[in-house]
Amino acid sequence: MEYEVKDLPAVRVAYLRYKGPFGAPIGEFWKEVFTPWQKAFGLVNKVTYGVAQDDPSTTPPEQCRYDACVEVSAEYPIKEPAKEATIPAGRYAVAKFRGTGDQVPQMWGEFFGQLHAEGKADAGACFERYPADYAMDPATGVFEAELCIPVK
Question: Which Pfam families has this protein been placed in (predicted)?
Answer without folding.
Answer: GyrI-like
